[in-house]
Amino acid sequence: MRHLLLAATIALMPHHALAQSEPTADLATITGGMIEGHILPAYGTLVGVADEQARLTQALCDAPSSDTLLAAQASFANLVEAWSAVEFIRFGPARTDNRYERLFFWPDRNGRGLNQVQGVIAAEDETVTSTESLQGKSVALQGFIALDYVLFGTGFESLAEGNTHRCAYAVAIAGAIADTSNDVLADWMGDDGYAALMLNPGPDNALYRSEGEALQEILRSMAAQLQIVHDAKLVRVAGDSPTNARHRRAPFWRSGQSLPSMIANAEAMLSLNEAGSFADLLPEQSQRFAGTARFELGQIASRLQALQDTGADIEMLV
Predict the structure, then answer these.
(1) Across 96-110, 274-288, 290-304, which has the greatest mean pLDDT?
(2) Is the peptide bond before 107 cis (omega within 30 degrees of 0)?
(3) pLDDT digits over 205-259, tens only?
(4) Contacts (Cβ under 8 Å, ≥6 apart) of 162
(5) What's the sign of the alpha-carbon dihedral 205, 210, 215, 220?
(6) How far is CA 214 from CA 200, 203, 210, in A?
(7) CB-count burial class (<10 Å; 0-12, 13-18, 19+) for 14
(8) Can you give the pLDDT at residue 230?
(9) Which of 30, 129, 147, 166 to pair with 269, CA 20 to 30 A apart?
């Protein structure tokens, strides 16, 4: 798996040079395909799933039971999958007002974020029980990792028993995730949105002077995500031997979504590659790079999926 991830990353590297050196390629069409074919629909899915998570979490608080808790937890799996499809987009609207960190504060290398979440639950801090007040607090308290702990961490069973503070905190987090996701998508849209900025480069564009620069932004983010999956989600978790493996370093290990999130990461890279139609639009001599990247990404997704189909989770994987 590590070799596959590195191979896919390396396969993407020529695309960066290509975006600079081969103006004959229809770079604007590739970028437009990626934005319209993956980025905007994936953010739209995230918004819809985040709204559903907020609704089901509120339903849990309104009528606490094992069934409503299971429904909120099941929705979280969909939420992680939706997030993982856009996790690689670390540029643009996701960077405004620390939105990326508000959504995904990870890795939490020293456990400081976890300590904050555990602290407000133990203290029954009322300032985290409304979305508005929560959004003014630490990013570690208001994203996917925080919700993962509230819904699946120590003491989560109390949610089905009427723990009003913990449940109100869960609702506030879900609301914050929904609000932030909506804000990110809104900033991509419209005549003055980020998509338009990427698709209309030029001398008057403050960020992108050419089609190649806009495409490079997306390609760099793809390669960076593969490197993060390799370095942080696999190598750092697996350690140098099975005895040194630390599966709790992986994101979403409590909810059992570590491996599904990596599958969604890989599938998102493949979707983006397909949406850009590299093989059709690049010059013939460069199509082999696109084909290699697509093959390696497909191998990563299929092998991770095969592992999941066997019932493996991140602990078994390492």
Answers:
(1) 96-110
(2) yes
(3) 999 999 889 988 998 888 888 888 877 887 777 665 555 667 788 899 999 999 8
(4) 64
(5) negative
(6) 9, 13, 7
(7) middle
(8) 75
(9) 147
Average pLDDT over residues 137-164: 98
CA dihedral 311, 109, 82, 275 (to 10 degrees): -100
- pLDDT surpasses 70 at 145: yes
For tokens 């607090």, what's the residue? 137
Give the burial string for 270-308 (b: 16+ CB within 10 Å, else e): bbbbbbbbbbebbeeebeebbebbbebbbbbbeebeebe
CA distance 241 to 282: 42
Residue 308 has pLDDT above 90, yes or no: no
Take residue 308 and report the two structure tokens written for it.
């999941």
Contact 145, 107 (CB under 8 A): no
| 3-class DSSP assignment, residue 142 | coil
